[in-house]
């Protein structure tokens, strides 16, 4: 999953796009993943538990969970992966630019 996220962030570097991660792994595992996986986008640590405050507030019960929001903060898709994720993000960027 991280390689695709890296490519998405790189491809959309000059676009109004943001990827934000939330990680529920234990603190040391989280820190190691940031380094090992070259995570350059904002990534929040959710207390080292799958019942952390962020996942609880957003109603996340399975990992990974992906929310795709538009420029107004409205969730427009959930749990898209790979090419499907790219298609949704590209469509939302086009909608925003056209609107």
What tags apply to this protein structure?
99 residues, alpha+beta, two-stranded antiparallel sheet, 4 helices, 43% helix
Question: What's the quick description here?
Answer:
Helices cover 43% and strands 13% of the residues. The chain is built from 4 helices and 4 strands, in the order αβαβαββα. The radius of gyration is 14 Å and the shape is globular.
Provide structural commentary.
- This protein is an alpha+beta fold and 99 residues long.
- It has one domain (2-91): Glutaredoxin (3-Layer(aba) Sandwich).
- It has helices at residues 2-11, 27-36, 53-58, 82-98, and strands at 21-23, 43-45, 67-69, 75-78.
- The strands form 2 sheets. Strands 1-2 form a two-stranded parallel sheet. The chain has a two-stranded antiparallel ribbon with strand order 3-4.
- The longest helix is centred in the C-terminal third of the chain and has 17 residues, at 82-98.
- The N and C termini lie far apart (31 Å).
- The model has no long low-confidence stretch (mean pLDDT 96).
Question: How big a fraction of the residues is strand?
Answer: 5-15%
Widest β-sheet, arrangement of strands: 1-2
Q: Tell me about the biggest sheet?
A: 2 strands, parallel
Q: What is the typical, i.e. mean, pLDDT? A: 96
Task: Determine Rg (CA atoms, Å).
Answer: 14 Å
Q: What is the CATH T-level topology? A: Glutaredoxin
Q: What's the number of domains?
A: 1
C-alpha end-to-end distance: 31 Å
């Amino acid at each position: 999953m991280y390689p695709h996220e890296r490519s998405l962030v790189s491809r959309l570097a000059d676009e109004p796009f943001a990827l934000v991660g939330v990680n529920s792994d234990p603190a040391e595992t989280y820190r190691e993943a940031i380094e090992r996986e070259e995570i350059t986008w904002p990534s929040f640590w959710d207390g080292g538990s799958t019942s952390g405050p962020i996942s609880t507030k957003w109603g996340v019960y399975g990992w990974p969970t992906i929310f795709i929001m538009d420029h107004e903060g409205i969730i427009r898709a959930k749990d898209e992966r790979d090419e499907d994720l790219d298609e949704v993000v590209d469509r939302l960027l086009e909608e925003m630019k056209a609107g």
